């Protein structure tokens, strides 16, 4: 009986060991098959990309999916000849596990290259850099260094901001903060604005976008200088993924695609003017409602918000506006242009808006059909300001210098050359203050995007944004709800 038991036990252990080996082999084969690689991507016909919801990465706009990271990832998918399958997350805690589990092939979410992330992941080539800014509410005492922090600092959990604060804490033992997964960056900025917290840390490009809507968010100091951004790939990925990304970023750097995308999303937000932004927000509340029906009526072929943005740049929505050069009214039309558009009174708001819309549509139609939107609009806006002929001259100079004459980001860098004799003497329409249409277009783009933001968030009953918007214009400081972290 004992002999039989021993033989049976040995046989059982043998089969158990054999089963374990088979499981390990099968598991290893499955893991190998599941490792992201270009061959697998091409076979299945799509690339799976993880990103974050937000204005910088991915959001659903009026015309469908948008965002810098989304558009760049779409370009990558197109370069492979496959579809893009975007998988957005609401937080970093949700995002990273998608890469770790193999649900996505890589992450494209404006993520900073940090020491901890370098240990855990592979990085594609960097495509941009940002700095980290500590922000506070305008009107409160400005902190100029870490030692000046006296209130509640709340930051996004598992972010590069936390990693940097932990490094800084070694030299500043009193530095303390709280972390959250509940709120996104915009919500943290609103908490600063509303007085729920004293400070947060935000990346510079995200801050630049949000200060157009919330100018009372002020910069205390730079927490960390230039930090590279890059796409993340799992360390278990096949080298072919990284190789394809290296090739892709080399191409988009070389052909200007990256520069054009950067201009599309960030080219108009570099300059921030607190007084101008506050005045514009006040005008949205106090003046725009009077004329919005007219902008909507005559903006049928043009987004009414763009038409309103042009009018604000021209006249600050003042129907009696006039300049020393003779342009007048809401759209600041010249007398010859007014006559061409059938405007009998430039001081009549409806006639002026109708004439301006008609003239702008005519300028858009003059832009070559091969130039797509939104560049088509930017060329038309520059023409509205300086004249179609001068814009065409700048396009000719761009072409001579090897740039793309059909791409706004290339032409806008050449427009200022029309002030220099060695350039303007070689083109048909000669001298022009070419820097002015560049500023003109950038201003209108800022106004337009601000109007679009509030049209979506305020007018569509987004409570937090509405309250923040109202608070800024009421100039009433909210009650202080903040407790000193040291006392908690």
What oligomerization state is this entry in? single chain
Strand content: 5-15%
Q: What is the overall pLDDT average?
A: 87
Given as residue ranges, the uncertain stretches (5+ residues, pLDDT < 50) are 1-33, 462-488
Secondary structure category: alpha/beta
Our Rg estimate from Cα atoms comes to 28 Å
- In CATH, the topology of the domain at 276-447 is named Lysozyme
* CATH C-level label of the domain at 276-447: Mainly Alpha
CATH architecture of the domain at 276-447: Orthogonal Bundle
Cα(first) to Cα(last) distance is 71 Å
> What is the overall number of helices?
21
Shape descriptor: globular
Sheet bearing the most strands, described? 7 strands, mixed
Q: How many beta strands in the DSSP annotation?
A: 11
Helicity range of the residues? 40-55%
């Amino acid at each position: 009986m004992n002999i039989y038991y021993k033989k049976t036990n040995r046989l059982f252990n043998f089969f158990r060991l054999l089963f374990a080996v088979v499981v390990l082999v099968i598991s290893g084969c499955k893991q190998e098959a599941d490792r992201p690689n270009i061959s697998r991507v091409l076979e299945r016909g799509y690339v799976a990309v993880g990103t974050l919801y937000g204005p910088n990465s991915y959001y659903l706009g009026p015309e469908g999916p948008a965002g810098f990271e989304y558009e760049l990832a779409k370009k990558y998918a197109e370069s492979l000849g496959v579809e893009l399958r975007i998988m957005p997350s609401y937080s970093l805690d949700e995002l990273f596990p998608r890469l770790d589990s193999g649900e996505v092939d890589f992450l494209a979410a404006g993520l900073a290259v940090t020491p901890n992330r370098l240990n855990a992941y592979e990085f594609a080539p960097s495509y941009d850099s940002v700095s980290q800014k500590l922000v506070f509410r305008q009107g409160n005492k400005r902190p100029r260094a870490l030692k000046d922090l006296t209130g509640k600092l709340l930051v996004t959990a598992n972010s590069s901001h936390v990693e940097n604060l932990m490094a800084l804490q070694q030299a500043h033992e009193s530095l303390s903060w709280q972390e959250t997964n509940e709120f996104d960056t915009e919500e943290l900025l609103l908490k600063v604005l509303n007085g729920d917290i004293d400070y947060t840390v935000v990346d510079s490009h995200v801050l630049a976008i949000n200060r157009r809507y919330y100018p009372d968010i002020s910069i205390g100091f730079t927490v960390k200088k230039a930090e590279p951004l890059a796409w993340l790939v799992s360390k278990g990925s096949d080298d072919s993924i990284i190789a394809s990304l290296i090739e892709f970023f080399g191409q988009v750097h070389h052909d200007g695609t990256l520069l054009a995308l950067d201009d599309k999303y960030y080219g108009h937000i570099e300059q921030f003017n607190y007084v101008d932004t506050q005045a514009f927000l006040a005008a949205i509340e106090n003046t725009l409602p009077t004329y919005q029906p007219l902008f909507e009526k005559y903006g049928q072929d043009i987004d009414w918000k763009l038409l309103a943005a042009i009018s604000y740049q021209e006249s600050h929505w003042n129907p009696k506006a006039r300049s020393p050069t003779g342009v007048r009214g809401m759209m600041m039309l010249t007398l010859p242009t007014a006559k061409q558009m059938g405007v009998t009174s430039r001081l009549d708001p409806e006639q002026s808006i109708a004439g301006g819309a008609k003239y702008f549509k005519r300028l858009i139609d003059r832009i070559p059909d091969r130039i797509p939107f939104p560049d088509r609009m930017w060329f038309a806006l520059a023409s509205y300001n300086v004249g179609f002929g001068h814009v065409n001259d700048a396009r000719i100079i761009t072409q001579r210098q090897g740039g793309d004459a059909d791409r706004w980001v290339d032409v806008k860098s050449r427009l200022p050359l029309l002030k220099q004799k060695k350039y303007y003497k070689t083109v048909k329409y000669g001298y022009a203050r070419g820097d002015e249409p560049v500023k003109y277009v950038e201003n209108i783009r800022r106004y337009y995007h601000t109007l679009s933001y509030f049209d979506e968030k305020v007018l569509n009953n987004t409570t937090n944004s509405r309250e923040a918007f109202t608070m800024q214009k009421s100039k009433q400081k909210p009650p202080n709800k903040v407790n000193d972290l040291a006392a908690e």
